[in-house]
Amino acid sequence: MMRFSSIALGLILVSNAMAESKGLSDVYNLAVANDPALRAQIAVRDASGALGEQIRGTRGLIADATVSGKGTQNLKTDDDYRTATLSLTLTMPLYDQGLDASIESQDAVVREADASLAAFRQSHIISVTDRYFAVLSAEQDLVATQAEVEAFESQLEQASERLTVGIGTRVDVDQARARLDLSQVGLISAEVALDTAISDLEQLVDAPILDLSDLGEGFAADIHRSLDNHLEMSVDKHPDVVSEQESYQSALADLDEARAETIPTLAVSSTFSVSDTSGSDTAATNASARSNVLSLTLSAPIYTNGVAAAKFDVAKASVVRAEANLAKARREVRGGMQKAFRNLGASARTVEARRLAIVSAASRVEATEAAYAVGSGDIVEVLNAKKDLFAAERDFAKARYTHVIRQLEFDQAIGDLSESAVARIDKYLVQ
């Protein structure tokens, strides 16, 4: 079967026969480098961090410098002179509860962006792996469909021969031809499905995909990890929950900021300036001056026409919404863990069942071939048995692919899917 599969795929992908096959790590690295959706998510995280630094910078000392020059012409005295001024202003807030709340809110937004990026990276691993094995699955479908076409071609040939020698009927020939026609339609669909799967993967990695490594015999479709007994701790650490938790913290800080709209602020500033006037015919005009002004500013809102109260109500409603979203995320993550674990167990049992189906199909092939060899069997039965064996091997391979995805989905449900999982799977791939 493996030799037949290699030959069949070689005929389909003849232009790629000499190409070195890519493993999952190779494809994943291409996706990381070339997927614009991932770059966009990273940019969102970076923008949040930069905005946090921008807001935090307003709490410290700010220095502004101004240099100016002007020329004056006194038409009455026919006197021309020039004045240059340099000023340096230092400003620092001493007490601003609204600013502190704004900084705290943005810090939470940054942590939320980090958690969202972590969740996106995990989904990205699933997406790349799913498309990778979708190509291999489509190849398996194509091989099995080709085997089916060959079996029906042989059946049509035998039916025609039987009709020629007078031991068959026209109905048998027509039925065999109909089955062959339907299988050829299926072959066209399988070819299109393979092309589509390859195109989807190439779109993700922005590179041509020539050949992919397949799962070797060493891959065991087992339950690689159990559901942690400390379920709630795992829920709390999940990126989706962390993201909503930080969103909730940001909403609380926004509420404090809105409340601070009615609280006074205090700031200190110092302005040092130097000016020099020269070129005048009047000696008193040519002079230099230095000054330093120290200011302490207390600002307090007196009347906002309901604006401050409205901002507070909006912020309060946002807190309620964020708290509800957090509770929803916890429930979804908890349920997702349990569902992913059940799916993992089901796929492991499915792989074992598919393996046993191959044993049964192989036994049937041996039995029909033995019967045909002694003249008590029919070649059609042999061909049908071989076709079923190809289908069983296809289903077994696809069940293993599904189990790989289920393993990663369970890791994602737990919240700790990483690139190490890609490397772990890559060890079992062979050219």
Overview of this protein structure:
The two termini are 16 Å apart. This protein has 10 helices and 6 strands, in the order H-H-H-E-E-H-H-E-H-H-E-E-H-H-H-E. The protein is elongated and about 135 Å long. With 431 residues, the chain is α+β, with helices and mostly antiparallel strands. A 4-stranded antiparallel β-sheet has the order 1-2-4-5, with no helix packed on it. Strands 3-6 form a two-stranded antiparallel sheet. Helix 3 packs antiparallel against helix 4 (97-164).
Task: Let me know the largest β-sheet.
Answer: 4 strands, antiparallel
- Mean pLDDT, to the nearest integer, reads 87
Content-based structural category: alpha+beta
- Tally of individual helices: 10
Q: Indicate the percent of residues in helices.
A: 55-70%
Q: Approximately what portion of the residues adopt beta-strand conformation?
A: 5-15%
DSSP strand count: 6
H and E order:
HHHEEHHEHHEEHHHE
Distance between the termini: 16 Å
Summarize the topology.
Elements: H1 2-12, H2 24-34, H3 36-57, E1 62-74, E2 79-95, H4 97-164, H5 170-205, E3 214-215, H6 231-237, H7 239-259, E4 265-278, E5 288-299, H8 307-373, H9 379-414, H10 419-426, E6 429-430
Antiparallel strand pairs: 1-2, 2-4, 3-6, 4-5
Helix pairs in contact: 1-4, 2-4, 3-4, 4-5, 4-7, 4-9, 7-8, 8-9
